[in-house]
Amino acid sequence: QLQLVESGGESVQPGGSLRLTCTAPGATLDEFNLGWFRQAPGKEREGVAIISRDGQETTYEDSVRGRFTISRDNAKNMMYLQMNDLGPEDTGLYYCTAYNDWAPLSAYLYGLSPTTRGPGTRVTVSA
Length: 127
Description:
By secondary structure, this protein is mainly beta. The protein has one helix and eleven strands.
């Protein structure tokens, strides 16, 4: 069974940057569309970014577009989320998701359930 593991979350000051990493020990990620979601304290979970199997197509939630970049390296079995110009509104638990079907990427961002998700890595942005 596919298991996802995130890393890279930490506390940073506003305006700072972080890179999150997702990997799948013992599994092959290139079989899946992949994504990042986040959940802030007291708020609903929201999609952040999705990337296609080959990495050629991406989609972003409006509030992160231009600041965050999702990417993947299938040879290394890794997915990344580069986050720049972080603000307090970006605080939350970030977790990666995998999808083994073939829907449009926007469908994953706004509702389709993932095949699996990781436990998450926490990002805190504060002065």
